[in-house]
Amino acid sequence: MSSTTDTRIQPGSTVLWDKGDAAGHDILGTRTFGFWLYMLTDAMVYAAFFAAFGVLAHNAGLNSKSVLAAVFNAQGAYRETIALFASVLAYGYAMVALKKGSRSGVAVGTVVALVLGLVFLGMVSGDMERLFGQGIVPQSNGFLSIVFTLIIYHALHIIVGAIWMLVMLAQMGRDGFTSNVVYRLINLRIFWHFQAVIWVFIFVFVYLQGKVI
Amino acid sequence: MTHSVDNPLHHPEVEQASFAGYLANFVITVVVMTAALWVVGDKSLSTLGFIGWTTLFAVVAVLVQAYFLLHMNWSKAQVWHTVAMLMFIPLFVVMIGLTAWMFHGLYERTMIAMPPHTMAAPMKRAAPAQAVPPVSQPVPAPKAM
């Protein structure tokens, strides 16, 4: 895709759509850009949830202080933050290995990222079990509903990312670094790293600021 | 987006990976998030100060991630990713900002006060309890004739 439009288009001679084989067309760049637009659209869903959180936080006081303290477990969320950031770093290492064409490097980075992602999921589900054990459940009130929705929606993304990593490990072993495998690895990088960005918002605006609003 | 290259591993989106960048991102974001957690324990801060500091740390972390992780830059391979992100930002602002503004106005006009006790758990909310008229007290019966 050319980004320069300085020259005037001559309708008689210009080919606007090349219907033949798309020579010179950047398949990888087109696919990552399409996936990036999907990622931003997914972020709009998060934006809707954060808007709902901002509205329903008005009713946070319906819960006792002990309930709020149990839900907004800042120390636990901090440990989850470190696990997720480390997983993102490991996948970054896989991307550097991809640049060098090292199959074993990509595999190691992906497996470490996968394990750390599962550690993150284990912490989140442990936290959920603890809350459910104390009778703190989403259906109690709107405020708890949106808090659980945000956390579970993010955890679902981590589950999808973990499955995606397993698929990529299999495809990489089967096909090597074909252009299909490479663009999927890049899209997984966009997806996985985006979850860390979203987590910053959840950690700060839900777990940390949730106590004082 | 750029023109195709024969070897996918030589594509600019593969070649932009940098371990130094990813490591710098990890170190900076962990430090910033640790600072945000540390602020939680600081009892000397006012609520507004606490929200201001933690929000500032979140903004720093997200900007660092946007640069190092999401590769938001003006290079030929990434410029449209960056432009798409910049065009989404007003949508996020409208989505969250307008919703918050609208409901803030709604609450101000419709809510008398927070209900003093609706949940079973005991509540210790000093400030609203003083502001709210004692709803729960029995209404004085009209004096008998």
Task: Give a description of the structure.
The complex is a heterodimer of chains A (213) and B (145). With 213 residues, chain A is mainly α. Chain A is 74% helix and 0% strand. The radius of gyration of chain A is 22 Å and the shape is flat. Chain B is mostly helical and 145 residues long. Chain B has two domains: 8-71; 74-111. Chain B is flat. The termini of chain B are far apart. Chains A and B meet through α1, α2, α3 and α6 of A and α1, α2, α3 and α4 of B.
The helix/strand order of chain A is HHHHHH
Helical content class of chain A = over 70%
How many β-strand stretches of chain B? 0
Q: What would you report as the Rg of chain B, rounded to the nearest angstrom?
A: 26 Å
What does this entry show, briefly?
The complex is a heterodimer of chains A (213) and B (145). With 213 residues, chain A is mainly alpha-helical.
Helix and strand layout, with pairings?
The complex is a heterodimer of chains A (213) and B (145).
Chain A: H1 27-56, H2 65-71, H3 74-99, H4 103-133, H5 142-175, H6 179-208
Chain B: H1 12-15, H2 19-40, H3 47-68, H4 79-110, H5 126-131
Helix pairs in contact in B: 2-3
Task: Fill in the keyword field for this structure.
heterodimer; A: 213 residues; mainly alpha; Four Helix Bundle (Hemerythrin (Met), subunit A); 6 helices; 74% helix; B: 145 residues; 2 domains; 5 helices; flat
